[in-house]
Amino acid sequence: MYTRLAVLLLAGCCGCSLIPEIAYQPRYHNPFPQLHRIAILPFFNLSESPHVDADRVTLLYYEELQAIPGFEVLPVGVVKQKLAESGKLIDEKTDFQQLAQELGVDAVLVGAVTDYSPYYPPRLGLAVRWYAANRGFHPIPPGYGLPWGTAEEEYIPDWIVWEAEFALAREQLATQTPEPRPDEAPGGSSDQAAGAPHAARTGLPADWPDPTGFVPPPPSRLRPPYRPQYEPIIRHTRIYHGNDEEFTRRLADYYFFRDDARFGGWQAYLGRSEDFVRFCCHLHITETLALRGGVREPKVVWRWPISRYDR
Q1: Which of 53, 255, 303, 310 is the most exposed place for a label (fewest CB within 10 A)?
Q2: Are residues 116 and 27 in the same domain?
Q3: Cis peptide before 121 (omega within 30 of 0)
């Protein structure tokens, strides 16, 4: 008891220099075991800014994705060499699923810079699509793999809940969109008859997205049937503003855990274009993964005041 009292008195006399700051470092991982080996294609520049170095953005995105446990990302130089050897022109007409097979990866990432300004407040827009080499892999919606319906559901961040609910509502409303009559659509045919028995049983359209689809099904004794599809399995689009309160809060946390000894603190990242772009790439990747169950338990970090080490 007397020892504990002495420690408390000593801490009070010395101010806060003996009390560490406790912080929780977010950690992320690859939640898709079937998407381990990844290739990132050179980013497109769809912005109107002449200051965009799309190759540099590609490299920074590669470095931040490779830092996530569970991913093996093909080096950018290797991807460029393979593309040059194939002589293929990469554009929106490219069969990216076939390209992933040719590159020997599980998925290719097709990215674009949609907006950019290096001047304060800096701004960067990123749009990235993931195409799986296996055409039988279907889209992974926001909210998939999260602990819905469990006690842990209350800890899902509000922004993720909103994204998941919005994505579900968009897919559900798509089933209510009027379609042209068969005689108005060339080669079209109505599938309402096929869905009628299901609708009669449940009162819902045959293709109505079920919210329980967010929860991965249990393993099946037999392989599921192969139903090829040709769309990206993941999409994530964002524009980041350097004067947004949430953005700067997350940037301050990012800086805190990097032990960056350069002068200027996290605010300097807003004035250094490469640091700003790197953080935007980090944010874009971690948001993509967090929306689909890629968040690990945070790491508890004890940070002692620098004065503790003074002699």
Answers
A1: 310
A2: yes
A3: yes
Least Cα distance to 14 among 220, 248, 310, 215 occurs for 310
Mean pLDDT of the chain: 81
pLDDT in tens, 35-66: 999 999 999 999 998 889 999 999 999 999 99
- Compute the distance between CA of residue 141 and CA of residue 4 in angstroms, rounded to an integer: 53
- Compute the CA torsion angle 266, 271, 272, 278 (nearest 10 deg): 60
DSSP bridge pairs for 98: none
- Could you tell me the residue range of the domain that residue 148 belongs to? 142-174+201-216
Distance CA(70)–CA(58), nearest Å, equals 20
Write out the two tokens for 143: 């909210």
pLDDT exceeds 70 at position 283: yes
- 151 and 27 housed in the same domain: no
With residues binned 3-state (H G I as helix, E B as strand, rest as coil), the percentages for the chain, rounded to 5, are 40, 15, 45
Distances (CA, A) of 263 to 220, 268, 309: 56, 8, 20
Q: Is position 98 within any domain?
A: yes
222 within a domain of the structure (yes/no): no
Which CATH number goes with the domain that contains 23? 3.40.50.10610
Average pLDDT over residues 238-266: 89
Residue at 192 is within a domain: no
Q: Are residues 244 and 158 in the same domain?
A: no
Angle between helices 245-256 and 273-290 (to 10 degrees): 100
Q: How confident is the model at residue 306 (pLDDT cuts 50, 70, 90)?
A: low
Tokens of residue 279, six digits:
């953080």
For 155-175, write each residue's pLDDT tens digit.
Answer: 777 777 777 777 777 777 777
Question: How would you classify the pairing of strands 107-117 and 44-45?
Answer: parallel
